[in-house]
Design a protein that fits this description.
Layout lengths: L3 H13 L13 H5 L16 H4 L3 E6 H5 L5 E4 L2 E10 L3 E14 L9 E6 L2 E7 L6 E8 L7 E10 L15 E4 L4 E8 L9 H4 L17 H4 L2 H9 L1
Antiparallel strand pairs: 1-10, 2-9, 3-8, 4-7, 4-9, 4-10, 5-6, 5-8
């Protein structure tokens, strides 16, 4: 199994949200915690501090190349082509807004009424970038709806439909192309999400892809070594 995409997604999530975790502490009296009877539904436990007293908006700005993984532009060739970037949303952080400041260039042969780039979030159409060969420069500011983002890895896809309007044109004709510069900017506004610290939420906080099962190590030893655990431990540690 190729782990490089998984590792890169995990590193991306860790690097993007570098501020300390914003996990609200649950308010549970010590006397109640020590009682033998249950406290009632866990959902009734409220954060100790009011949300408006501790939540602050954090703005994250990155070049598009940071999400692509290199300095190459998003390239669209042929009649229909796609490109995708990933924006993570941890369980303890809520994405309030995502803005794309896209720059680039398209073929001067493209027909304005039939050429465009559809931008979607998690397969939900968000907006369309019109392309016009008469004005080939791409300079778009796009605000993506925050309700389309969910906890986990969010896929932002760009689907280009390119045509020159020529009759019987080949799907891979040379004039069919467009580029979005890797120097384009991505701006993300986030806010801490108050979570009651519950064990059943650990799975959503940590990246499951990084929690791989450790391989079993077989240790061979004789009966005399069994009387000395330190010997076995040293052997296991290599």
């Amino acid at each position: 199994m190729d782990l490089l995409p998984t590792v890169r997604r995990s590193l991306l999530a860790a690097a993007l949200f570098t501020s300390p975790p914003f996990l609200a502490q649950a308010s549970v009296p010590v006397s109640a915690a020590l009682r033998s009877e249950p406290l009632g539904p866990v959902a009734d436990v409220e954060p100790a501090v009011a949300l408006h007293d501790r939540i602050e908006t954090n703005n994250i700005k990155r070049p598009l190349s940071w999400f692509i993984g290199n300095s190459s532009p998003l390239s669209f060739d042929n009649e229909v082509s796609t490109a995708t970037i990933t924006i993570p949303e941890p369980a303890d952080i809520k994405i309030k807004s995502v803005k794309l400041y896209l720059t680039g260039i398209a073929s001067t042969a493209l027909e304005a009424k039939a050429s465009s780039i559809l931008v979607s979030v998690n397969d939900n159409p968000a907006t369309t970038i019109p392309l016009d060969g008469a004005r080939p420069d791409i300079n778009e500011k796009i605000s993506l709806p925050s309700n389309l983002f969910t906890t986990g890895y969010n896929q932002i896809s760009f689907r280009a439909i390119l045509t020159t309007g020529r009759v019987c044109e080949k799907f891979n004709a040379p004039p069919l192309w467009a580029r979005i510069s890797a120097a384009s900017r991505v701006s993300i506004d986030t806010t801490p999400r108050a979570l009651v610290p519950r064990f059943d939420r650990l799975r959503s906080i940590f990246d499951k892809h990084t929690l791989l099962h450790a391989e079993t190590v077989t240790i061979l030893y004789n009966e005399k070594a069994a009387d000395h655990p330190s010997t076995i431990i040293s052997t296991a540690e290599g």
